[in-house]
Design goal:
The chain has 153 residues and is α+β, with helices and mostly antiparallel strands. It has seven helices and five strands; from the N terminus they run H-H-H-E-E-E-E-H-H-E-H-H. Strand 1 and strand 2 form a beta hairpin. Helix 1 packs across helix 7 and helix 4 crosses helix 7. It is globular.
């Protein structure tokens, strides 16, 4: 998929500007995308481990971070929260994780992704993401993510 290669190529110079996007817009985009991408898993309770708990995802090379929690069947995003666990890594490693181009245990073992805080919750989130069925995702989104993972590799 040529668009995926193009997106990855432009990622390094353009993605760092994401930190200048107002957080309210970032939150809105992430919450809308999560509602669409994870509609079935959210409805099935797959994200219940985040009910009343907060996860911080930090993309270290972009200077971006979001705090995520689950309320009912919705993922919520905050700029700051008293987080229970934090997962930190570079954007390319998160793409490899999301596209399943790299084994999550390998990314964590090699410290390319780092879990801090409640490691049981962090491992639960890692296992949740690993267990998500790509067939429940919108097909075009999954194909694009796979192609981006291949391009990153």
């Amino acid at each position: 998929m040529k668009i995926a290669q193009w997106l990855v190529k432009l990622g390094d110079p353009l993605l760092p500007y994401g930190r200048h996007v107002p957080f309210a817009l970032q939150r809105r985009l992430i919450e809308l995308a999560a509602a669409r991408l994870f509609a079935a898993p959210l409805a099935e309770g797959a994200f219940d481990l985040l009910q009343g708990r907060w996860l911080r995802l930090q993309v270290s090379d972009l200077g971006l971070a979001w705090c995520l929690s689950c309320e009912g069947t919705r993922l919520r995003v905050a700029q700051r929260a008293a987080v229970d666990v934090s997962i930190r890594g570079k954007w390319r490693d998160f793409v490899l994780l999301a596209s399943r181009q790299e084994d999550p245990d390998t990314l964590f073992f090699r410290r390319r992704l780092v879990i801090e805080g409640d490691t049981d919750l962090g491992l639960g989130v890692k296992n949740l993401l690993d267990a998500l069925d790509p067939d429940q995702l919108p097909p075009r989104a999954w194909r694009l993510m796979q192609a981006m993972g291949e391009a990153v590799r």
